[in-house]
Specification:
Order of helices and strands: HHHEEEEEEEH
Strand order of the largest sheet: 1-2-3-4-5-6-7
Number of strands: 7
Helix content: 10-25%
Strand content: 5-15%
Largest sheet: 7 strands, parallel
Length: about 230
């Protein structure tokens, strides 16, 4: 048996936990690991780099084209993501939460058309989202809570079912296009102290079941949403 075949066989026999450790090494030491072309890194389906003190994500992450989940949360010094993340076209879930230095996301995130869930909560330096997020036609769950500097949302934000915007103090308005999300069930706007108004068309959200606590200024509009569950 050739050396390359031994490497591939050994990798395939690893437990899921050890595969994640291997993925971690692949991203921390890319110049070494990615030279081992015979090792089938693209077979990894789950990647977790949570709380790894990452300063940057190597561009070689774009080689892991069969990843279905990627967790890059709680890396306090991570400021941005490489454009090569747009190569991960099989990605379903992306978690980039609690990265206190994260300032922006690459426009290539719009290539991840199979994404159904994104967690971007708790990124204190994130001011806006790339407009390309509107390309994510399968995006159902978007958590943008606790982004203290987030000022606005893109005009298009997929076909959401759940949108969490809680504790965004600098968010001043929601795009009118949010009223076209006919399948939206949950819109959380609790403690958005700068959000004084909702789009006039909010009454068109006939599937909406929960609106959190939008404040007393919206009661006139909300009277039309008599299908909401719970208290306002």
């Amino acid at each position: 048996m050739k050396g390359g075949e031994v490497e591939l066989l050994s990798y395939n026999q690893l437990s899921q936990t050890l595969k994640l450790c291997f993925l971690y090494c692949a991203l921390i030491f890319p110049k070494i690991i990615f030279q081992l072309q015979s090792i089938s890194l693209e077979m990894v389906e789950l990647g977790s780099l949570r709380n790894c003190n990452l300063v940057e994500v190597p561009r070689e992450i774009g080689n892991l084209i069969h990843l279905s989940q990627l967790r890059l949360s709680e890396n306090a010094f991570l400021k941005d993501l490489p454009s090569e993340i747009g190569n991960l076209i099989q990605l379903r879930h992306l978690d980039v939460s609690k990265n206190e230095s994260l300032e922006e996301l690459p426009s290539e995130i719009g290539n991840l058309i199979h994404l159904s869930r994104i967690n971007m909560s708790g990124n204190k330096c994130l001011k806006e989202l790339p407009k390309e997020i509107g390309n994510l036609i399968h995006l159902k769950h978007l958590n943008l809570s606790w982004n203290e500097c987030l000022k606005k949302l893109p005009t298009e934000i997929g076909k959401l079912i759940h949108l969490d915007l809680c504790y965004n103090d600098f968010l001043e308005e929601l795009p009118e296009s949010i009223c076209s999300l006919q399948n939206l069930l949950t819109l959380k706007v609790d403690h958005c102290t700068g959000l004084w108004t909702l789009p006039e068309g909010v009454a068109q959200l006939t599937s909406l079941r929960s609106l959190g606590n939008p404040g007393l200024t919206q009661l006139v509009l909300l009277n039309k949403l008599n299908h909401l569950e719970g208290s306002l």
